[in-house]
Amino acid sequence: MLPDRYNMRNLIRSVRNPKILLKESYRLYNSSIMKANSYRLKQKYGKGVDVMSEDWDNLILLDACRYDYFFDAYEKSDLDGDLECRVSRASQSWEFMEKNFEERELHDTVYVTANPHVELLSDGIFYTIHPLLDQWNKKLGTVHPEDVVEAALSAHREHPNKRLIIHFMQPHLPFLGSTAQKVRQQVNLKGFNNNEFRNGNGPSGKSWYQFVKTDKISLSETSQAYNETLEIALEHITVLVGQLGGKTIITSDHGEHLGERIGPLGKRQYGHLGWETDMYTKELREVPWLSIPANQRREIQSDNPIEHDALSDEIRDNRLEALGYL
Fold first, then answer.
1. CA distance 273 to 34
2. Which pLDDT belongs to residue 197?
3. From CA 283, how far away is CA 116, in angstroms rounded?
4. 117 versus 202: which is more confidently predicted?
5. What's the rounded Cα separation, in Å, for the pair 253 and 65?
């Protein structure tokens, strides 16, 4: 296949300019490494877990939570269950929802979520959805885990015979905790909402990961801030599990790159955005699967769906942008 005009022009420019040739060659090398890695892991692990086919009464979703970091945080938590590593079907939130929820009738399930991507789902999939419209914290640029807990318990009281999916935004940026606060002050990131790529709110409009790339935030500080955010979320999840009853699974929609190199001489990778869907790396796809048993299971009943309050397109896009998705 002949290259299109755009790539042909780049090729000609590359031949004429050694610096451009080197940059383009390195970009193609990294792309090839990522694609080869994706193919190898797909062959090894397959498509990933279908969360809706698993046995649970409560499915608690962390957002962008890696298995290795969860393993360490779980060891220090008060949670008690059977932990294993599973492979997610997705490397981004919307991809996760699309591959696990779309084109299904899940009328025995209520979805409580802090993730704005829920507004992209087709109508009538769940019995109902509880998007956290009123709990969005403008200062934080996200929904605090304490507010997710309150919403989940309210939904359980309102729908006691339904399965619950409870989707937290942590440990996804913006980070919480003392390390994140200290770093934000050091680099003059305003408030907590520090992940805006289009309307970034640092002095030069940069996000957390962009500051890492320029060495103004270290990889160790990033790792610590991510870990503290996860630990904060697990403290609140521990309270939630103790009050919900029923069998609970704690997992994640996808993982996160925190400065790892993919392949020899590959460039460091950060976050999970900017990738085409179906990107497959261990950091993005290996997620926790903590199963917490219950003495008494919930009697689950399927009913005709009921309507839920939806975000306006403007608010949805603003929140997606605040989280770095737009």
1. 14
2. 34
3. 23
4. 117
5. 8
